[in-house]
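=== Structure Prediction Worksheet ===
Name of assembly: unnamed complex
Input type: mixed (protein and possibly other molecules)
Chain count: four
Listed entries:
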Amino acid sequence: MNDIIFKLSASYLKALSHPTRLKILDILKDEELCVCKIFEALELEQSNVSQHLRVLKDQGILVSRREGANIMYRVKDKDVFNIVNKVKEILIRQLNETQDLLEKEGD
Amino acid sequence: MNDIIFKLSASYLKALSHPTRLKILDILKDEELCVCKIFEALELEQSNVSQHLRVLKDQGILVSRREGANIMYRVKDKDVFNIVNKVKEILIRQLNETQDLLEKEGD
DNA sequence: TTATCATATTAGAAAATTCTAATATGTTTA
DNA sequence: TAAACATATTAGAATTTTCTAATATGATAA
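=== Predicted Assembly ===
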């Protein structure tokens, strides 16, 4: 029963757990963009980016709408940035701590 | 260059993106426990749990120490719960919104 | 020191993810 | 309508993840 929330959480986190997908979120931080702009920014294959966009959309993290021949993507809810920013914070702190240790070692 | 932080973030998130590993964090929320208690609580194979513990430890999320024949695991930094709790929050809100939509549909 | 207990590691099969290349779909323009 | 453009989908190979079963390691107790 509570199993469900662990499973859903794991799926959500899995959708975020790829460098390209994190980059996509970063690119879409403040603006809605068409696929063409996104994969141009990433310098990756169109079909590859399309697949990553789908993962994020399936998870409800992105939404899309058609505008003429283009499909525009945007972040559905800015809350996702709470998560990715927090992760960044934790990692940066970890890196600093490691560095401090190494410096002490150097004495 | 900035690629590195995306890669590190993705690795961190990937370590979290498995139901069993989220359950382990939940079990270790407020206490340090030996492997025997952890896999008993999870009702999973010892070797399987041991492998999941390793993933979390390799990522720096858990730490362990020997106590006699036992190995005790604990969460290294409670910050990780900011992340998993935030995910839970987002998912619960999503579920509620979906439910609201379904109820409106029912009119 | 041998047996036992607790945990980790390894091997290998099955499943899932990721990427590229090719193709399909839907839109606009000529 | 045909050609060109934007995006999605599919197929298939390579890689990674996950699990189970078996074995190894290391600590304690007999």
